[in-house]
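TICKET: design request
STATUS: open
ATTACHED STRUCTURE:
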């Protein structure tokens, strides 16, 4: 059985998350692609309320831990302290560590632990932080790609491809040819609608109009 990647991003840090779709290029923006390049891609952007370090941290008075850089994002974790945030595991909102505790609610972390389970030690110098939305971009289990394959006198050629992260399912490829019309012209390929603005030696110039996901 292959591995399946789903949209579940929260486990220990069970906080509300919002979902938005991010496309490349953005809807409404113009772009130019050469033959063999992708017409569009999209990812699902999950966002939660978290925190961000505003200064580098150092180890605690009894902790030989690594320094954590300013700007590091932290996911919230249930705590008896005023606020607790942990560095998440890559690509998730799961707390991995190091973790930081603000005991008095003054906007500075007072203690640090190597992970969510170990005992926290007092920091030599409190570390300031700010509340901030943090996001993770994730692709679907099935990745869909549309490539521009070139143009002839009366047609535009595209290639639609699907790749599944579950290796038990084979990849899928479909070659698509659409009539070449006077520019600008609307073209729909699978779930993607583009406005073709022109074709030249530089490639296909177009505007992404709509994506149904």
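STATUS: resolved
RESOLUTION: sequence designed for all positions
ATTACHED SEQUENCE:
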């Amino acid at each position: 059985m292959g591995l399946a990647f789903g949209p579940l991003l929260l486990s220990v840090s069970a906080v509300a998350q919002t979902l938005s779709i991010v496309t490349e290029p953005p809807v409404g923006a113009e772009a130019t692609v050469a033959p063999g390049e992708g017409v569009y891609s999209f990812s699902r952007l999950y966002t939660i309320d978290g925190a961000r370090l505003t200064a580098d941290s150092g180890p605690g008075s009894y902790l030989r831990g690594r320094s954590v850089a300013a700007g590091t994002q932290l996911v919230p974790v249930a705590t008896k302290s005023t606020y607790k945030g942990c560095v998440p595991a890559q690509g998730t909102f799961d707390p991995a560590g190091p973790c930081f505790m603000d005991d008095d609610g003054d906007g500075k972390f007072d203690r640090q632990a190597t992970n969510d389970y170990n005992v926290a030690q007092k920091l030599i110098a409190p570390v300031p932080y700010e509340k901030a939305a943090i996001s993770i971009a994730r692709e679907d289990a099935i990745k869909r790609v549309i490539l521009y394959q070139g143009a002839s006198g009366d047609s535009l050629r595209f290639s639609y491809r699907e790749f599944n992260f579950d290796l038990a399912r084979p990849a899928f490829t479909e070659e698509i040819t659409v009539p070449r019309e006077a520019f600008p012209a609307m073209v729909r390929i699978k779930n993607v609608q583009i406005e073709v603005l022109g074709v030249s030696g530089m490639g296909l110039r177009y505007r992404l109009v709509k994506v149904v996901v």
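CLOSING REMARK: The chain has no helices and 14 strands. Residues 24-41+140-211 form one domain.
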